[in-house]
Write a structure and sequence with these properties.
This protein is of the alpha+beta class and 350 residues long. It contains 9 helices and 18 strands. InterPro entries: AAA+_ATPase, ABC_transporter-like_ATP-bd, ABC_transporter-like_CS, ABC_transpr_MalK-like, ABC_transpr_MalK/UgpC-like, Mo/tungstate-bd_C_term_dom, NA-bd_OB-fold, OB_MalK-like.
């Protein structure tokens, strides 16, 4: 039997924008579908507030859902698409008109109510889908990759719109995405999933600066964190990270988190590319190598430096001329390093 999700426990606060991210097949959409009532868990319960909704159908759960495809009916005008959930509940025409008009004004699409879906842009379609989910005034709004079909420029605008709307309505929102930048911008807290399990739950800052394991460390951040295998040794009372090609002294505040039993244990050092500076070759620096590749991004460039068989990506200003094959060194604040157990892949700093 395949387990799409396992041992997942999430508590979402009222009014919170809660993002769930992970690679394809990680279980994030299945988790959302269990909240919506489209999947029934084989174990465990689903509560909305104090109400156990585990076995209730979607229409009785007081949730609104926006799908990746938007699921807009092409033969209905925008007004009728938004009104549809109310019509099937036999709400009076007068109340439907008021609710549809009100939600359309909030979402800035009142001028589109007489149009057909074929006349709408991608961003307008997305707003119609959100309006239809909100017209019932649900307790929880569920969003499954709602921006993935939009082009990059529209996506940025739609992202800001969703954030502002959620704040204005103060509606509890669960947002599933594979895009970590969306989650970091939108989420009050983020759950990261992999292989059906929660890897970490925390604020964007906690996820980025206090990763629980190597998966979280590399999944969040672009470019991903540099990971360098090595071991911990002691020299003259100081703890040293030995990568073979080079050695680094571990700051006292980090060393205090590492137990003595980890001495001579295989570990992985992590450091984010933006925390490393690629600098001109200097014999006084002890971590130097050869430029393997450069990636120019107008405002800056990423420089990958090969140190024997270790490849480290570092930051350099855009105006600095760097060629493949140049000798360069790296410099960084050692207080921004991370250490992970190589076997368990868990952080050694928590």
């Amino acid at each position: 039997m395949v387990e799409a999700v396992k041992n997942v426990t999430i508590e979402i606060k009222p009014g919170e924008f809660f993002a769930i991210i992970g690679p394809s097949g990680s279980g994030k959409t299945t988790t959302l579908r269990m909240i919506a009532g489209l999947e029934i868990p084989t174990e465990g319960r689903v509560f909305i507030g104090d109400r156990d909704v585990t076995f209730l159908p979607p229409k009785e759960r007081d949730v609104g859902m926006v799908f990746q495809s938007y699921a807009i009916y092409p033969h209905m005008k925008v007004y009728d698409n938004i009104a549809f959930p109310l019509k099937i509940r036999k709400v009076s025409e007068e109340e439907i008109r008021k609710k549809v008009t009100d939600v359309a004004k909030v979402l800035g699409i009142a001028h589109l109510l007489d149009r057909m879906p074929s006349e709408l842009s991608g961003g307008e379609m997305q707003r119609v889908a959100v309006a239809r989910a909100l017209v019932r005034e649900p307790r929880v709004l569920l969003l499954d990759e709602p921006l993935s079909n939009l082009d990059a420029q529209v996506r940025v605008t739609a992202r800001a719109f969703l954030k502002r709307l959620q704040r204005e309505l103060n509606i509890t929102t669960v947002y599933v995405t594979h895009d970590q930048s969306e989650a970091m911008v939108l989420g009050d807290r983020i759950a990261i999933m992999n292989y059906g399990e929660i890897q970490q739950i925390g604020t964007p800052f906690e996820i980025y600066r206090q990763p629980a394991n190597m998966f979280v460390a590399t999944f969040v951040g672009s470019p991903p964190m540099n990971l360098i295998s090595g071991s911990i040794i002691e020299r003259n009372g100081k703890m040293i990270f030995d990568a073979g090609a080079f050695q680094l002294s571990i700051p006292d505040n980090i060393a205090s988190l590492i137990k003595e039993k980890l001495m001579h244990t295989e570990v992985v050092l992590g450091i984010r590319p933006e925390d490393i500076n690629a600098v001109p070759y200097n014999e006084g620096l002890n971590i130097c190598g050869t430029v393997y590749v450069t990636e120019y991004l107008a405002t800056h460039q990423w420089v990958t430096i090969a140190i024997n068989n270790i490849y480290i990506k570092a930051y350099a200003p855009a105006e600095v001329k760097i060629n493949i094959g140049d000798k360069m060194c790296i410099a960084f604040d050692s207080n921004k390093m991370y250490l992970f157990d190589k076997k368990s892949q868990k952080s050694l700093m928590t």
